[in-house]
From TrEMBL:
The lineage of its organism: Bacteria, Bacillati, Actinomycetota, Actinomycetes, Micromonosporales. It comes from Virgisporangium ochraceum. One of its GO terms (molecular function) is hydrolase activity, acting on carbon-nitrogen (but not peptide) bonds. This is Amidohydrolase-related domain-containing protein. It holds the Pfam family Amidohydro_1. Coiled coil: none annotated. Residues 53-391 form the Amidohydrolase-related domain. It comes from the Bacteria. InterPro entries: Amidohydro-rel, Metal-dep_hydrolase_composite, Metal_Hydrolase, Metallo-dep_Hydrolase.
Length: 396
């Protein structure tokens, strides 16, 4: 049975000019055609969404389904056994999907639970996004997020073994903790964890097994190590020092030269009375300056959420991200929309299936009120969601 989705206009994931009066024809979970002002074929079931704008389902390239978006997600996690945790992860997956997030890349779970969820959601597209999963991130002894279970003893051989274990489990991506992080007491965001030869061994082993890699890296040494090791993506990339942000122009040029995208985990959903941690708030203007330098160097900036790590990071916060790119980086709305659709899909290795509304792509389609190409805030006014061509019942 073919499905024809009609609406007022459409952003295809790439073009700055909308398609007016679109008809998206879907068959077997894939888009077979996108027309403008065309009549749906007689045999198709027609869904008319009126004046809404159709956009590609959003791709969140950095999430943590195991974290609960409280002020202390780490302690909370240690209170939960796997069954209870998996139930919470299912609820978060539903919350994300209802906001139009049809694909998430989980960059750190406990006990490979996100892989179990991935397999469940593959069987029921209305229950959550498509999941790409890293399992427990690979880290050093008592290193960043060690409590998720991904500690290694150190040295290239141990890191290779950790990659092989994940490949055997069936992960989609390998996550490497190249520096400490804000969430983990006893680690420092500005300090490198692994040496270059350890990261290079991980990347080599992952690539040999057909897996992409992405590195959590704040401090410049960690970023430089990740670039030298040949990682496929860098998360955060903040050039953090002990108390400031200090961009290194030569390193920025090296990131650009290598074509490595930066995952800017900036999306957050405003909550009355809640502000980001004071340390981050203080650094914010400097981080904005840094990201403008990334833009100027031609580095692809993917907008993601890191959802779960704090109160502003609810599982449905990604659609708020593009507005921040427009406000802080001065992005054109179309660029900001690409950062959560086609560009995010490319960075996740899904550029031929996700992030665009075009023939041959998965029928992950979101309808929003208003015109996000004029104001990306419209992305948060979701009126309909389809994943793999199946309409998702939305909570009222
Ligand atoms: Zn993260």
């Amino acid at each position: 049975m073919k499905l024809a989705i009609r609406a007022g206009r459409l952003f295809d994931g790439v073009a700055a000019e909308p398609v007016e009066h679109p008809v998206v024809l879907v068959d077997g979970g894939r888009i077979v055609a996108v027309g403008s002002g065309t009549e749906p074929p007689a045999e198709a079931e027609v869904v008319d969404l009126g004046a809404a704008t159709l956009v590609p389902g959003f791709v969140d390239s950095h999430v943590h389904l195991v974290f609960d978006a409280s002020t202390d997600p780490v302690s909370r996690l240690s209170d939960l056994d796997d069954d209870l945790l998996l139930d919470e992860m299912r609820a978060r997956a539903r919350q994300a999907l209802a906001a139009g997030i049809t694909t998430v890349r989980d960059l750190g779970d406990r006990g490979y639970l996100s892989l179990r969820l991935r397999d469940e959601l593959a069987a029921d597209p209305t229950a959550g996004p498509q999941v790409l999963a890293a399992g427990p991130p690979i880290t050093t002894g008592r290193g960043h997020c060690w409590f998720l279970g991904g500690e290694t003893t150190g040295g290239p051989d141990a890191v290779r073994a950790a990659v092989r274990e994940r490949a055997a489990r069936g992960v989609d991506v390998v996550k490497l903790m190249a520096t400490g992080g804000e969430l983990t007491p006893g680690t420092s965001s500005h300090l490198a964890q692994f040496a270059v030869d350890e990261l290079a061994a991980a990347v080599d082993e992952a690539h040999r097994l057909g897996l992409p890699t992405t590195a959590h890296a704040h401090g410049a040494t960690g970023i430089a190590n990740a670039v030298a090791a040949g990682v496929d993506m860098i998360e955060h990339g903040t050039f953090m020092t002990a108390d400031s942000i200090e961009p290194d122009p030569a390193l920025i040029a090296a990131i650009a030269e290598a074509g490595i995208p930066i995952g800017a985990t900036v999306a957050q959903k405003p909550k009355p009375g809640v502000t980001p941690p004071p340390r981050i708030l203080k650094l914010l203007p400097l981080i904005v300056g840094l990201f403008r330098e990334f833009r100027a160097a031609g580095i692809p900036i993917v907008c993601s959420s890191d959802f779960g790590i704090g109160p502003l990071k609810e599982p449905d916060c990604l659609p708020y991200g593009p507005t921040q790119l427009v406000t802080f980086l001065g992005d054109a709305p179309a660029d900001a929309l690409r950062a959560v659709t086609s560009l995010a899909a490319d960075a996740c290795g899904l550029g031929d299936r996700k992030g665009r509304l075009a023939a041959g792509f998965d029928a992950d389609v979101v309808a929003v009120d208003g015109d996000p190409l004029a104001d990306p805030a419209a992305l948060t006014a979701v009126t309909a969601v389809f994943r793999a061509g199946v309409r998702v019942p939305l909570p009222r």
